[in-house]
Every structure is written in structure tokens, then in C-alpha cells.
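Input (structure):
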């Protein structure tokens, strides 16, 4: 009973005694700028008080096909919208996840793995935060989040040890089941399980509660409570969502949202409108076949 009262008191204190901190939003074109921002934070913050989350697709890696490059999608946006506009939310999420599996992945910037290793060595906690589906998809040997972690490791990203003292694997079962699975944390990779139901902000808050007050109460050991959270993402909507949810969760956490535009200018190969349309129609056909 005493432990329960202690846990409740701790959660109330963490919830109601915080002082609001101003969030910061910036846009960058290179990971060198991201690195510089993180280094500047170390002048005022301890490394262990900083949590950095990197989006995966179009931030760390991208499918190596000209139809998936951002300039091509922007050029043929009418075609893109007409093809994907007919899909359900689950189908759209499956299309997004399939493009990471049926085509080779390349680094958006070749020096990013070394940059992340450098900040990890300084004691900063670093995870991946993605909207990919987490569960098993017909035709693939394992759950998507397992495969995604293996993909990241093959190109030089390893987030395995970031929270090894708090959690290795957990599913957030308090969310509604979606596409046969749930948001999940797996050895440094945190996934919302698609964009159709749970946001990155919702998933990140659940994770912070899991390694913070919930861990504190369950393990009777101090949990992890970051003072600064940085999210590097190519989509501004995710940055704004995380900012909003963090402000409601704990206004004392300083949030820095970094909109990464490194993939927006990358288009080494042109593609015709016909080939672009054929590509995306083919992906949609594969998607619908997997859901039958």
C-alpha cells in the first residue's frame, strides 16, 4: 500500500509542479546542422538529460527508386494523389511500409551513421521514431519492426543499447489494435504502427511514461526523465504533434523540433509521368493482394 501511495504521489508531482518551457522549431538541409544544434545544447545540458529521436524514412534512409524521391512525387502530385486517394488508411500505411521492404534502402546522407555514433558516445540517448507498421505482413518472415531494426543495423544505425537498462521490448496495448498490431518499442526503435490511428506524439508520451514513472514504480528504481527532447523529422506535422502532446504531458520538458529537408532535393534520376504512375499502381496492386 505504501508503494502504491508513493507512486501516485510521484505521478501527481510530476504532472502538476512543472514550469512551462518554450519549444523551438527549426528547419535544416543537412545532418551537419543537426549535429551542430545538438553540440550547442551540451554547453547548457548534461548528455544524459537529452533524448534525440530520429525519424527513419526520408530522414535516415530512403527507398532507392526514382518514383519515391520527393522531387518526383512533387512533380507528379496529381497522379500520386489520384492513386493513393482511393485507399483506406490501413492500405496507405501498408503502401508506405512496403516501399521500405520491396526496394533497396539507401542512406539519405552517408555521414549520418557516424554522426549518430558520435553523439551516442557522448552519453546522449538516441532512438528511432517511425510511423511504420509494426506487425506481421503476409509474405515477410517476421514482424515489420524487427525487420526495420535489422535494416537500420545493416546501414550503420544501432539504437539497441539506448534504453537497455529500462526496456528492451514492449507493446503499448492500451491503444486500439490497428492493422493487426499495436505501437511498439523494439531495441531502440519506437513505432506508432502506422499513421491511421496513433500519432508520434501519443506513442512518445506512452514510451516516456513507461521508462519514467511506470518504471520507477514497478522496478523501485529511478526512471528516466529527460529535460530536453529533440525530434528530427522530414514532416512538420509530426513535429507539431509531438510539441503539442509534450506540452500537455510535461511542460517542463524543452522540445526542439528539427524539420529535416535533406531528402527534398535528392533526385539523381528523372522519371516519366507514365513510369511514375506505373510504379505506384504496381505498389497499390501488391498492397491489395496482401490484404486479401
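Output (sequence):
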Amino acid at each position: 500500500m505504501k508503494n502504491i501511495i508513493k507512486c501516485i504521489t510521484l505521478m501527481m508531482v510530476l504532472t502538476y509542479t512543472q514550469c512551462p518551457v518554450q519549444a523551438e522549431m527549426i528547419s535544416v538541409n543537412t545532418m551537419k546542422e543537426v549535429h551542430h544544434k545538438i553540440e550547442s545544447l551540451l554547453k547548457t545540458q548534461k548528455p544524459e538529460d537529452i533524448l534525440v529521436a530520429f525519424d527513419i524514412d526520408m530522414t535516415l534512409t530512403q527507398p532507392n527508386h526514382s518514383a519515391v524521391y520527393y522531387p518526383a512525387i512533387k512533380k507528379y502530385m496529381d497522379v500520386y494523389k489520384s492513386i493513393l486517394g482511393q485507399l483506406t488508411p490501413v492500405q496507405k500505411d501498408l503502401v508506405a511500409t512496403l516501399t521500405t521492404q520491396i526496394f533497396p534502402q539507401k542512406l539519405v546522407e552517408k555521414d549520418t551513421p557516424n554522426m549518430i555514433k558520435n553523439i551516442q558516445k557522448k552519453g546522449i540517448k538516441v532512438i528511432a521514431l517511425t510511423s511504420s507498421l509494426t506487425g506481421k505482413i503476409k509474405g515477410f518472415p517476421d514482424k515489420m519492426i524487427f525487420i526495420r531494426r535489422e535494416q537500420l543495423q545493416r546501414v550503420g544505425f544501432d539504437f539497441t543499447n539506448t534504453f537497455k537498462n529500462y526496456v528492451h521490448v514492449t507493446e503499448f496495448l492500451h491503444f486500439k489494435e490497428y492493422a493487426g498490431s499495436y505501437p511498439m518499442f523494439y531495441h531502440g526503435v519506437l513505432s506508432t504502427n502506422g499513421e491511421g490511428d496513433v500519432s508520434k506524439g501519443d506513442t512518445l508520451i506512452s514510451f516516456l511514461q513507461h521508462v519514467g514513472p511506470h518504471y520507477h514504480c514497478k522496478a523501485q528504481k529511478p526512471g528516466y526523465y529527460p529535460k530536453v527532447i529533440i525530434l528530427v523529422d522530414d514532416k512538420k506535422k509530426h513535429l507539431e504533434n509531438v510539441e503539442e502532446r509534450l506540452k500537455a504531458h510535461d511542460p517542463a520538458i524543452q522540445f526542439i523540433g528539427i524539420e529535416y529537408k535533406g531528402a527534398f532535393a535528392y533526385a539523381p534520376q528523372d522519371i516519366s509521368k507514365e513510369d511514375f504512375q506505373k510504379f505506384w499502381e504496381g505498389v497499390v496492386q501488391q498492397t491489395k493482394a496482401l490484404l486479401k
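Notes: Residues 20-266 form one domain. Strands lie at 24-28, 50-54, 61-63, 105-107, 125-130, 169-171, 184-186, 189-191, 228-233, 254-260.
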